Amino acid sequence: MSEPIVRVETRSPAASDGRQISARRYGTAELAQRQADLQASIQSVLGVMAQAVQQAPDSGLRVGELKVAFNVAFAPDDGAYLCSSPAEATFAVTVSMTLADSPPGAGA
Predict the structure, then answer these.
(1) Torsion angle (degrees, nearest 10) of CA 20, 69, 8, 22
(2) 11, 73 in Cβ contact below 8 A?
(3) How high is the pLDDT of residue 24?
(4) What angle do CA 55, 61, 64 make, to 5 degrees?
(5) What is the pLDDT of residue 72?
(6) How much is the pLDDT for 101?
(7) Is the dihedral angle over the CA atoms 50, 55, 57, 58 positive or is it negative?
(8) How many CA atoms does the CB half-sphere of 15 hold within 13 Å?
(9) Would you give the DSSP letter of residue 2?
(10) Neighbour tally for 71: CB within 10 Å
(11) Which residues of the chain have pLDDT under 70?
């Protein structure tokens, strides 16, 4: 018996020509072939989150936990993009980071 194949929907990003309604290109791809795209999008968001915490001004408050939710869609050919609407997304991702305790005066 062969391994089951999981497919994901692909779609072109919304046109930036200002039209409310425009033609979209939909398709599918094997998840295994798009795994790197999904991982890259999550790692990119994690990097931005970590950088934002590191660059936060020292106000005497400490960030204990940080959560971010975002939507990822796959482009038809290669790559993934973040989209604002869950209706446009292939995956809705929620990432939660619990920050390690840092000594007093060490910033975030």
Answers:
(1) 0
(2) yes
(3) 64
(4) 80
(5) 92
(6) 65
(7) positive
(8) 9
(9) P
(10) 18
(11) 1, 14-24, 101-108
